[in-house]
Amino acid sequence: MKFTRNEALKSIQNTPTWDIAIIGGGATGLGIAVDAASRGYRTLLVEKYDFAKGTSSKSTKLVHGGVRYLANGDVKLVLSALKERGLLFKNAPHVSFVQSFVIPSYSTFNKLKFLIGLKLYDWMAGKLRIGKSILLNKDEVSLKLPKIKTKGLVGGVQYYDGQFDDTRLAINLGQTASAHGATLLNYAEVINITKDSSGKTNGLTLTDTMTGDNFTIQAKAVINATGVFVDDILKLDTPTHKDIVRPSQGAHIVIDKKFLGNEDALMIPETSDGRVLFGVPWHDKVLLGTTDTPLHAHQIEPRPLNEEIEFILKTANDYLENAPTEKDVLSVFAGLRPLAAPTDGNSESTKEISRDHKLIKSNSQLITITGGKWTTYRKMAEETVNLAITTANLQPAACKTHNLPIHGYSLEKKPGHWQVYGSDIVPLMKLASESPALGEKLHPSYEFLAAEVVWACRYEMIAKIEDFLARRVRFLLLDAKASLQAAPKVAMLMAQELGKDEAWIAREIEDYTILVNNYTL
């Protein structure tokens, strides 16, 4: 099936019953769709917004076991995540890769303490280990992190972890699920959970928010994989439901790569609030983050708080010479972590809550998966589908995702952002060569081409210009103001490809302008 909205809508209208219906198109939901479809189940996934619009596009872009979780004693989560890190490198090498991290140390005791912890981290990865942690002297740290403050520096530790492009992986998961027969639809809001005469969940009603059309579908198993929004779906199932998720916000800023100065990433293990802070090279910029701010409400486009921005910049200033200031920030963004709501008296602490996932089966047999992290999406999906099989009495089928190549799989390395297209790069470049207009840049300072917009319309299910600028390419996160300059051209190309009029173009540019304000200081 083609990965387009029209094909998805046709499939929804023509399929009497689904084995598994998934609500939520972030990392978890998309992973479940891949798992279920690859086992042969008739699978439907619906997403209220665009795929990975929420938390799954706003991560720190790390595929990691979680050094901090190890410090907190969460050995089970770290072991699982390290295994999954290795599987992701194997199954999606075009969007994930090994990244070197350096921890600068201003105390000999701390240097040795971190080395011991990271040696344990290496050992726990077993045969999926991706590098060897080593001690560095002061000069070696300065060579790897040219902008690091050297006053009092005694050396450091180098270790290896993973990095990835979160929404490129998300789109590739959607394409992989589609290739195995799943139907996926973005901009489709679930407005009702349907039940049989005994009160058991048997389907759902959704609204295509692009057209206003409603559809009621039958499903043997319904899975709620909506991240920080799981309570909203649980209230559709049980109006008296009490919230089980407490969102925690993680903010990030993006700056020019000159502020870090090399290919190695910076890891600050003990910030003033007890968290870890990363400075990571990403798409030719540097991403600084993250924070851990408890919130009492959730929203699809959270904005970093002023104090979060100040905290990140202050921490950077503590460690970097000529550190960035507010005027150097190219983009800011925040994601919400779906953490278990605290039951003790300390409702303002979130950093001690386990990042492990939870699987819940309601009395109605609605299945809910919450928590977890990008790195463990595959394992979470496997466990969720296993529960769906027993809950809905589906014909058992073994999980196939341990060794399932993700769409775009390629071992060939490409320069710049072309790397994330993987095996799609050949047909994409062929498209770009079809006319001079398609080979034009969207912005003089960036390598994104007009052909990428057309490609995303045809093969990556974009419906709004933000889908392209924020998620199919990462322009919004890399340089928010520059992305706004490219928006009119993107809107025009999309209108031509999707059959939209001038009024649509004007609305889209207006919507995107409002969105960009959320990503700038």
UniProtKB/TrEMBL annotation:
<dbReference type="Pfam" id="PF01266">
    <property type="entry name" value="DAO"/>
</dbReference>
<dbReference type="Pfam" id="PF16901">
    <property type="entry name" value="DAO_C"/>
</dbReference>
<dbReference type="InterPro" id="IPR031656">
    <property type="entry name" value="DAO_C"/>
</dbReference>
<protein>
    <recommendedName>
        <fullName>FAD-dependent oxidoreductase</fullName>
    </recommendedName>
</protein>
<keyword id="KW-0285">Flavoprotein</keyword>
<feature type="domain" description="Alpha-glycerophosphate oxidase C-terminal">
    <location>
        <begin position="418"/>
        <end position="503"/>
    </location>
</feature>
<dbReference type="InterPro" id="IPR038299">
    <property type="entry name" value="DAO_C_sf"/>
</dbReference>
<comment type="similarity">
    <text>Belongs to the FAD-dependent glycerol-3-phosphate dehydrogenase family.</text>
</comment>
<dbReference type="InterPro" id="IPR000447">
    <property type="entry name" value="G3P_DH_FAD-dep"/>
</dbReference>
<keyword id="KW-0274">FAD</keyword>
<keyword id="KW-0319">Glycerol metabolism</keyword>
<feature type="domain" description="FAD dependent oxidoreductase">
    <location>
        <begin position="19"/>
        <end position="345"/>
    </location>
</feature>
<dbReference type="GO" id="GO:0046168">
    <property type="term" value="P:glycerol-3-phosphate catabolic process"/>
</dbReference>
<dbReference type="InterPro" id="IPR036188">
    <property type="entry name" value="FAD/NAD-bd_sf"/>
</dbReference>
<dbReference type="GO" id="GO:0006071">
    <property type="term" value="P:glycerol metabolic process"/>
</dbReference>
<keyword id="KW-0560">Oxidoreductase</keyword>
<dbReference type="GO" id="GO:0004368">
    <property type="term" value="F:glycerol-3-phosphate dehydrogenase (quinone) activity"/>
</dbReference>
<dbReference type="InterPro" id="IPR006076">
    <property type="entry name" value="FAD-dep_OxRdtase"/>
</dbReference>
